[in-house]
């Protein structure tokens, strides 16, 4: 099914040379990536409507979000390795079909449990789909100039997909109903499956290799415990016994996983993938950047709707300049400059711009004007994210042996998911606790209660946004210190010299 066309050529650049339709193939890969990323946020705006329809409790409603992120983040390493073993095109198609089926079940849900299960199933198939999409991109585009353009588009979607989710979710919820936030995946998946069969080509999987079952149990179990711990820290608090137990379990399982990977005959995650300095720097930069970004999405959604009184559609449209700035930063600036400058020359300024945008947002009040006070911050954030995401994806996946490209792609996605979980839990906890103490200290006149509560909520947001700005700065420092790769030479597929040997 896959690989017949490229199996005759041995060089790593074969797909790019042989495949005249690679830019159309990029459209298919980009569609799948967009579907996976926007599904993390598209249901946020639809959640109040779904909660009413399915009689969800306030305590349980978070599972609409958590079930997806938990399965997605926890199973990514397994999905990446399955792509390497079975073949990337095959797992890509399986992921698309499964994701569409899970979306159909979720859209037709008649109970909250049915919706939670469908969202978890979406996460499972997203964990198969995302690594195979990125590794197909990695093996299709090997010429540095073309690779820059391709990764610019991919980075733009990865960075803006969440914001696009808010826009699409708002429109679908307001003009159709919340179920279309799930049904919308079906036509996208159908188009992508047809395109995959027609346009994507891949080497066959390594059928003789075996799956590292102890590694799957330890690695995926540790990631599930970690993501679950952060999701429960949000409603329960950081010192809750369950939260502490989950974090403890995650540390034990992940430590055991690292130990086992040094001894496993066919490791789930070969440690040389994360030991190489540039890749490690990219993984860490991605995680820190997403911590700050998810904080922005979380607070701005509530701020625009609850404080400023925006409708779901208007809230979604308010994110449009952010999305446009990410696309421009990624495709028009990063993609053009990366062939000529080292990736940290883009990543460091990108994180400084994003942090500056966050600092501007700390000045927002209950009466802020969108154009004068919110828009400049969103534009800076978008440009910064666009500058950063594209070189992260490109550098992290460069110089990797084809048999490890799936698991390397999965590790990039894992750092993104873990960063999102940490950002949502950490920043939300800071915001709510700060708001509560500020309101308690200032609520002296009962007649002013409504205004004081609103001001307290915004105060909590601004404190948390200061923390997010600091995390963005830290991401810039990490990129500057750890990512030492040079600009790629034309005609060479690797974007940094001497990738380490593969065992």
Automatic annotation (TrEMBL):
Record's keyword terms, sorted: Antibiotic resistance, Cell membrane, Membrane, Transmembrane, Transmembrane helix, Transport
Single annotated GO MF: transmembrane transporter activity
An example Gene Ontology CC term for this record: plasma membrane
Location in or out of the cell: Cell membrane
Domain named Major facilitator superfamily (MFS) profile: residues: 25-487
Gene3D superfamilies the record matches: MFS general substrate transporter like domains (1.20.1250.20), Multidrug resistance protein D (1.20.1720.10)
Bilayer-spanning residue ranges: 23-43, 63-80, 92-114, 120-139, 151-171, 177-199, 211-230, 242-260, 281-304, 316-338, 345-366, 378-401, 422-443, 463-483
Biological processes per GO annotation: response to antibiotic
Main location: membrane
CDD domains named in the record: MFS_MMR_MDR_like
Bilayer topology term: Multi-pass membrane protein
Entry protein name: Transport integral membrane protein
